[in-house]
């Protein structure tokens, strides 16, 4: 930067500080200029946000937008001219329906209906692609060009105007210390920048018919999309209703189970299907009590009426210790004494001995 350029930057910085900190007043711009500047600022913000919201409208899923942005960047790096389109949710749904419809096959009413719906969804995706292309060409691109060119150029002119105003005000405040020619040149540059900025803002505001036309193109594209979408969905609805009527009028097939084939298990060595059962434990006497586990019961013999304390053997009992009384299932045993809560003393066939209570059924209890 030249010495003159450095001096000018110093002048502008000094004037800005004096205005912000010292409260000095700079040259005031007329109300018409300020009104135009305000309208341009509002227009700039409106265009920027509408662009963002339009892209969100075309592709609501933020993850898909991020993925598309990445793919577009990669395409530009690779030199690919054609950018990939938006992944349409209708197309993804249609592919899912078609895939499962084919898996179910032509014999399934639901499978055929899925194929119809899937093909219609894929057609909707194609129509949505057309909407995206139409909106991008006739609405998004023109607005983006407005942001990148016209509005950016206006901001450049306004920034340049502000710099020249600060330079002029600094020199005007030091009139007499600065040559008159330099002050005159600063004023001319300021007025020149003001005229250029005014003209560019005026042209933008007066040609807003272009933005109205672009907005009309957006609505036309939406109308065309919705007309085609309604036609596709109405055709699909008619197909599905026809399938419902055909399925309802078709006689229902009765399901007859196939006859069961005989299944020969053969002779089982074990009664529980092959798993060996534990052998019946042998009960031995002890000084206190025996286990209450019971072996398998076998059919009992008939029992005559009794009029004395007695019990009937439920299981075979083999004595293993001295003093125990052995018996067979169905034997009638005369009770003579209760040793404890688990053992009785009784007589059978003239023999007396002890036996476990769990092996017998008391018919006539011992007197208390």
What's the short story on this structure?
With 368 residues, this protein is an alpha+beta fold. The protein has helices at 3-20, 31-58, 62-78, 89-104, 109-173, 180-206, 209-249, and strands spanning 310-313, 332-338, 343-348, 351-356, 360-364. The protein folds into two domains: 27-249, Arfaptin homology (AH) domain/BAR domain (Substrate Binding Domain Of Dnak, Chain:A, Domain 2, Up-down Bundle); 310-364, Roll (SH3 type barrels).
Characterise the protein shown here:
- The protein is 58% helix and 8% strand.
- The chain is an alpha+beta fold.
- It folds into two domains: 27-249, Arfaptin homology (AH) domain/BAR domain (Substrate Binding Domain Of Dnak, Chain:A, Domain 2, Up-down Bundle); 310-364, SH3 Domains (SH3 type barrels), CATH 2.30.30.40.
- It has a five-stranded antiparallel β-sheet, with no helix packed on it.
- Helix 2 packs across helix 6 (180-206).
- The longest helix is centred in the middle third of the chain and has 65 residues, at 109-173.
- It is elongated.
- It is a peripheral membrane protein.
